[in-house]
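Hey L., structure's done. Input below.
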Amino acid sequence: MFAPGTSGLGSVRRRGSMMIALLGDIEIGYDDAGAGEAVLFVHGFPHDRTLWSPQLQGLATRARCIACDLRGFGESTCAPPYSMSRYADDLVALLDRLRLERAVIVGLSMGGYVALALWRQAPQRVRGLVLANTRAGADSDAAREKRRQMLAIARNEGSSGVAVAMLPGMLGKTTRDKNPEVMDAVHRMLTAAPVEGVIGGLEAMLERPDSTATLSTVTVPTLIVHGDEDALIPVEEARAMHAAIRGSTLEVIAGAGHLSNLERPAAFNHLVSEFLGRLTLE
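Output:
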């Protein structure tokens, strides 16, 4: 029998087609579609829950699909402190609020960092993991310097400056050449990100712990998905996670960059659907 934790105290209300969960002193915006195995989708940086629209549309016939805005993004409250641990705490509180004992956690990029933090903090709440276009290691010195440069852009030029700086590397060459509508949609998403949340997310990634040692502790079924045109995180990072997580499955999607779920949604949904099917057989 599920007994919600104290972090789940709060209320849920609807705002248009979106749901709002009051979790302590913050609001978390989320969408909730379908029924069956609970799947919680965690977006990357600097995205929001609409990143997962193709998954909520394509997978709701076989699972309960929940996509939330991390604090500081989308319709969720901007409230420090920002960290992978705090983002993970918010997800646990949302699961409590929805009276879900556990869920499959799907995290892309920064969402993958949060998913690994959630595994460390509350493994009993994780039914399975899907780690998409992410890595386990902390930032290198060069990557940390790039984060600091992006922080300066965010403070001086706002989210629109961050969007201009990040967009070229966020999508694969195939998408940039053939799907300008996807580029336009991602640009709008990045531009709309609250600047406080953008700064908080950058600082959280700068300070995030190295999760490499966490990989060997993962005991739930795990699917690792990567795009072969990802310019932000090399596919070698996915292969390293696959080697470290016992029993994991690695799938590389051709013609997809860093946002494989959005660039090749049918392929991504097929992989996740098959993964969910294997879970039901266990």
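The longest strand covers residues 26-33. The two ends are 21 Å apart (CA to CA).

-- N.
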